[in-house]
Amino acid sequence: MQPPGNPNAPSQPPGYPYGPGVGIPPPQKSGNGKLIIIVVIAAVCVCGIPALGIVAAIAVPAFTKYMRRAKTSEARVKLATMFDAISAHYMEHGRCPEGETGQAGVTPPLSVNCNDSEARRCSSAAGMYPATAWTDNPVWSEIGFKIDGEHFFHYNLRWTQTADSCQFTAQAFGDLDDDGVFSTFERAGAADVNGVQAAAGLNIDHEVE
Questions:
Q1: 54 in helix, strand or coil?
Q2: Where would you tag: which of 96, 136, 142, 191 has the fewest CB atoms within 10 A of its CB?
Q3: What confidence tens digit (pLDDT) does each residue in 136-188 have?
Q4: Where are the alpha helices (DSSP H) in the chain?
């Protein structure tokens, strides 16, 4: 799914029912990178240099995909942080932030291309967008969420306040290979007087594009 440049239209929160609170499992470690290197070395030793072309045609795309998947760990961690922040806000104030229905707005805007920097990451410190995009945003300020360092993803928070609960979705969008297609990660939840419940797992679209 490719989110639009207008922050008013990222995907809506997944539907109910919500299951019991579910934490995000840590990203699974993979040996794919080491395996690819071993295959290349073995091919050179056994078949000589001509085999490199064949091995490279297989190994390079696989390694590139492996590296993009490694970047997605950021989205999982930051969505967990945002989930905790909105949960703590509700438990303290008994409501969603900033009105009955709304969103923080995608930050930084999708018009900011994280791939334009030498590090191929977004950074307010590098002048790619102002740090005030976090600190002057009333929603991020109210729940205490911001990103100080370099990052691959753009973030948003959507919510709907009902009579007795706050339904919310934390979102992350990342164009990991600069092709204009965005990986989308979402974590939904609902908070009420009984506590906070999370939807089972993450909603993921185009994980590595």
A1: helix
A2: 136
A3: 999 999 999 999 999 999 999 999 999 899 999 999 999 999 999 999 999 99
A4: 32-47, 51-93, 132-135, 138-143
